[in-house]
Amino acid sequence: xxxxxxxxxxxxxxxxxxxxxxxxxxxxxxxxxxxxxxxxxxxxxxxxxxxxxxxxxxxxxxxxxxxxxxxxxxxxxxxxxxxxxxxxxxxxxxxxxxxxxxxxxxxxxxxxxxxxxxxxxxxxxxxxxxxxxxxxxxxxxxxxxxxxxxxxxxxxxxxxxxxxxxxxxxxxxxxxxxxxxxxxxxxxxxxxxxxxxxxxxxxxxxxxxxxxxxxxxxxxxxxxxxxxxxxxxxxxxxxxxxxxxxxxxxxxxxxxxxxxxxxxxxxxxxxxxxxxxxxxxxxxxxxxxxxxxxxxxxxxxxxxxxxxxxxxxxxxxxxxxxxxxxxxxxxxxxxxxxxxxxxxxxxxxxxxxxxxxxxxxxxxxxxxxxxxxxxxxxxxxxxxxxxxxxxxxxxxxxxxxxxxxxxxxxxxxxxxxxxxxxxxxxxxxxxxxxxxxxxxxxxxxxxxxxxxxxxxxxxxxxxxxxxxxxxxxxxxxxxxxxxxxxxxxxxxxxxxxxxxxxxxxxxxxxxxxxxxxxxxxxxxxxxxxxxxxxxxxxxxx
Length: 541
Ligand code: ME8
What we know:
The chain is an alpha/beta fold. It contains 17 helices and 17 strands. The chain is elongated and about 90 Å long.
């Protein structure tokens, strides 16, 4: 398996307030990025903003600012929100970046030169908010199949991409590499609705708009602006500087400043990456995480464009479900959103992260309510994890003066519990490779439950009553402390702040006992001090 792992969120439209839907995808990608980094893989994690198009122009006009001012402000807001959420992205990529623009112009010209793009006249039904054309058959009652808003008639000269040509190759792709598009339900939707639709054939795609100010112009026809989705999809490669040499930037590096903010048009990136080698991430394991409404763009249009350029395809597109408000998708254009900053302020970063990771079956829709969030925090974090840590460290203090002890060997009766501790990393990894992110997290909370049961079964408070069972008492506590340390090791991928708080309860825990290699029983040194600390998660009333 390749060591390079490149994971992307969609690049988000800065056309409205950011909400927990955007955080949902990003936190889940963050868990994967962190997990594989801790596994020792070379990871690149992209998120960012998709800043061109009519929608942005319209919002800017309504707010009385320039599109550039609008996107600068909103991109900064999102990048700062992600910092507050402890997102470990390596880059915050923006499509108004000069390096992106230069590469998109180059790609469009190359597709035209290859005959993959041609000029023609377009007449059809258009959805302004989604920036998509629909046919009469697709759009019943002239309503957009995606956002359910009214479509308008539009006729224009435009450039077209020969999408229809790729129908068979896309079907072959799904057949040969079923992992390319997951979950399988999305694959069935793509085949049934677009690739083998009973009603009509896959049609060529209109890839430019006349008279749109805010976008990247077609380099050889300045009246035309490149369709925002083409501009946006290629961000996954322009961020790696993939076309920089060919586009004439003169070297193989990303043509961006590398500071850590998105305040101007700089991309944020971690200083440790070897930037001259970024391009190579495209030949590693590439995973695009998106929600289901944009699967069509990522699993049909995107691979077809890559095929047209004879470029390697991503390994996997995963289309997760929606957070709903009632029965409706939570969405900025509908305004029915939950505000991440309010939730972070109210419940804390890791509580919000945990909710977004654990509450919903990854891949399916789920309704959002604050009550659900509170219940999830109380069950998994306050009652399970928080309680386990408080109880165990309190007993270590009470019975052994705050020191790790192990006065005898473990017994045969401990084997099952130790096996669970040793199996945690593997169980989590298996879940993650199947994109069962919620289940990966529940492997950890389930181990917390097992530890609580182990304590109840072994009754340390009874063992403590008799000097003769002090040795056994030390083993029982040692086993649970080891379980907590191993849980901390795994939590670094999901709840990094909580992992640090757990580690801080052991005095000067060596760094080598925080690595994935140390996620096994028996490494915690005897004699290390156990410290007092605040409750990890308070119960919410
Ligand atoms: O589509 N539930 O941007 P966008 C779950 N710019 N996820 C949600 C969500 C919800 N209710 N609401 C939003 C775009 N998301 C394009 C993408 S990519 C080349 C261009 C998340 O701001 C989810 O990841 O509309 C969804 O696909 C994305 O935000 C849509 O973001």
